[in-house]
Fold each of these.
Amino acid sequence: MHEYSVMKQLIAALTDELEKKGIDRVEEVTLEIGELTFLGEEQLQFAYEVMTKDSFLEGSTLNVVNVSAEVKCEECGYQGGINYVDDPAFHYNIPVITCPDCGEKPRIIRGKETTIVSVTAFQED
Ligand SMILES: [Zn+2]
């Protein structure tokens, strides 16, 4: 499952970062996922729960914030959201994204990222 490999990388990066800061208890982690990552929120939640078990992240809450995609078309200057049919098949084959105005292939500005935006942690001494 795609969500598992993404979550594994995120947790590894997060663990590294928090260990450096000496944080040993985390309450909340907020994650932003772009529309074009096609990651399932439920699968992410499940992966998080399974992978943080028996770690200092166990029991913390994962908040998933969806970020909608934005494109810019060099052809006609269009900038904004995209339209595509949300067919479940697209979750396995990345859809072809076209400019809603002229049909050219636009540049993706936003929507492909997976970012940890905040962590609420406790520092105990
Ligand atoms: Zn265009």
Note: The pocket of zinc ion is lined by residues 73, 75-76, 78, 99, 101-102, 104 (CB under 6 Å).
Amino acid sequence: MRMLAVADVHSPRFLDPFLRSLEQFSPPDLFLMAGDMINRGRATEFRVILDAIHDSLGNDFQIVACYGNEEYSEVRNDISAAIGRDMVFLDETMTVVEVDGQKVGIVGTQGSLDKPTNWQRQHLPSVRRTFELRAHRAGSLLKKLRNKVDRRILLMHYSPCLETCQGEDSRTFGWLGSRKFYNLIMSEQPDLVIHGHVHNSVNHEAHIGETLVRNVAMPAVGTLTQLSF
Ligand SMILES: [Fe+2]
Ligand SMILES: [Fe+2]
């Protein structure tokens, strides 16, 4: 199975490199988006992104996404209206995709931060608890998929480890990701973790135990990330 993955296009901010990058690849079996595809809640930009993908790669593959912090919760209905049935969002949920007889289970979540931002602390009084629960739920979903699928993918926006944050100030890891996810990945060992959010990483790949972790943020990687099982 061949996959293309991307995050942090922040359309229209990094739309041009995204469009150029689309031209460099052939149609995948699965297209994954790890959040922040639009800038500051501009829901209609999703239509621009989907039209570009279909124009370049056709529509003979599923598109699966998780939310990023720029897909504001108050515009998610508008996002649903913009995307129609052309893609599916996983928000602390899972799906199973089957390609050539291979079953791939995908768990999607925005992920957690060890240090909620000032905005999150002011506007979401229970944000610390929310972040704890997110890690717990992602772990439960991965566990449910164990022995039921051939491969398991965790698709998340925030980072689960320091290694793919190299290039950012290491003191900011609490604002980039959460050790809670590191711990659940270490115990559950999915085949692949895809994340975004880290715009300035210089190292896009790491391992947590046997699990491959890839940061697919467009501003960091500069292109779509191609992966295969
Ligand atoms: Fe971002
Ligand atoms: Fe982000």
Note: The radius of gyration is 16 Å.
